[in-house]
C-alpha cells in the first residue's frame, strides 16, 4: 500500500494517546490531529482502559511509565480481552526486561523517547496498513451488509452500492461514534456547510435514503437527542 493511500486511511482512524507529561501530551496531540481524524488523549493507564472500553479505538499510542496502570499493563489487559488493536508503545527505557515484555504484546512498534516525529509517522502508517491488510476497514453492519471505509461503498449481498457525499458523511460520523448517540445538531453541522440547508426534513431525507441502502433498522432514532448506528 502506497504512503499516500496509507495517510488517507490514517486520516479516518481514531487514536487513543496516553502520556502523563502534560506538555508532551499537548504537543504530540497537536501533531496527531494533523494526521488523524479523532484523538482521545489521557494521562494514565486506568483512564485509557476505560476510554478504550467505551469507544471505538483504531490505534493505541501509549507511554510505558504511567500512573495508576503502566502502558504495558494497559495493553496487556486489552490483549487478554482478545483485542488485536494495533499498539505503539513509547518509552525512555531501552532495558531488556521492558523490551521482552513489549515483544509479547504484538506491537506495531516500540519507540524510544524523545520522539522522532518521522519515526512516529512511520509507525502510524504501519499501523494503518495493518488495519487495512486485515480487512478491518470493512465494517459489518448486519448479516448481509458491510461498509468499506476505504472505497466508501456499501457491500450488500455481494454487490457494491454507491453512496452520495452526504450519505458518506453521515454513515462515517455514525460509525466513528458507534457506541454513542450522535446529536442531531452535530450531524447537521457535519453534513451541511450551509446552515440554511440543514433542515429537519433534509436530514430525514438523507437518513431515509441511507437506510434504504444499508437496512431500515440499521440507524436508530433516539427521540429528542439524535441517532445511533447499529452494527453486528
UniProtKB/TrEMBL annotation:
Keyword Ribonucleoprotein: no
InterPro entries in the record: CheY-like_superfamily, OmpR/PhoB-type_DNA-bd, Sig_transdc_resp-reg_receiver, WalR-like, WH-like_DNA-bd_sf
This protein's UniProt keywords: DNA-binding, Phosphoprotein, Transcription, Transcription regulation, Two-component regulatory system
Name of the protein in question: Transcriptional regulator
PANTHER family registered for this protein in UniProt: REGULATOR OF RPOS, TWO-COMPONENT RESPONSE REGULATOR ORR33
Molecular function terms from GO: phosphorelay response regulator activity; transcription cis-regulatory region binding
Modification sites for 4-aspartylphosphate: 63
DNA-binding positions: 136-231
Domain Response regulatory: start-end pairs: 14-128
PROSITE patterns linked: OMPR_PHOB (PS51755), RESPONSE_REGULATORY (PS50110)
Any one annotated GO CC term: protein-DNA complex
Protein's GO biological process: regulation of DNA-templated transcription
Domain of life: Bacteria
OmpR/PhoB-type domain ranges (all copies): 136-231
CDD domains found in the cross-reference section: REC_YesN-like, trans_reg_C
Amino acid at each position: 500500500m502506497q504512503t499516500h493511500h496509507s495517510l488517507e486511511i490514517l486520516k479516518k482512524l481514531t487514536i487513543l494517546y496516553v502520556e502523563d507529561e502534560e506538555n508532551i501530551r499537548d504537543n504530540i496531540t497537536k501533531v496527531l490531529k494533523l494526521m488523524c481524524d479523532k484523538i482521545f488523549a489521557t494521562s494514565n493507564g486506568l483512564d485509557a482502559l476505560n476510554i478504550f472500553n467505551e469507544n471505538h479505538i483504531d490505534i493505541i499510542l501509549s507511554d510505558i511509565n504511567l500512573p495508576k496502570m503502566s502502558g504495558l499493563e494497559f495493553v496487556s489487559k486489552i490483549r487478554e480481552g482478545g483485542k488485536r488493536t494495533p499498539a505503539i508503545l513509547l518509552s525512555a527505557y531501552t532495558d531488556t526486561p521492558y523490551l521482552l515484555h513489549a515483544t509479547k504484546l504484538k506491537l506495531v512498534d516500540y519507540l524510544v523517547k524523545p520522539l522522532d516525529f518521522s519515526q512516529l509517522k512511520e509507525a502510524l502508517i504501519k499501523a494503518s496498513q495493518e488495519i487495512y491488510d486485515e480487512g478491518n476497514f470493512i465494517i459489518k453492519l448486519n448479516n448481509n451488509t458491510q461498509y468499506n471505509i476505504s472505497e466508501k461503498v456499501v457491500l450488500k449481498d455481494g454487490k457494491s452500492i454507491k453512496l452520495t457525499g452526504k450519505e458518506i458523511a453521515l454513515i462515517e460520523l455514525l460509525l466513528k461514534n458507534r457506541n454513542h448517540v450522535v446529536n442531531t445538531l452535530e450531524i447537521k453541522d457535519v453534513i451541511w456547510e450551509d446552515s440554511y440547508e440543514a433542515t429537519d426534513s433534509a436530514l430525514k431525507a438523507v437518513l431515509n435514503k441511507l437506510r434504504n441502502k444499508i437496512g431500515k433498522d440499521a440507524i436508530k432514532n433516539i427521540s429528542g437527542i439524535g441517532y445511533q448506528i447499529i452494527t453486528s
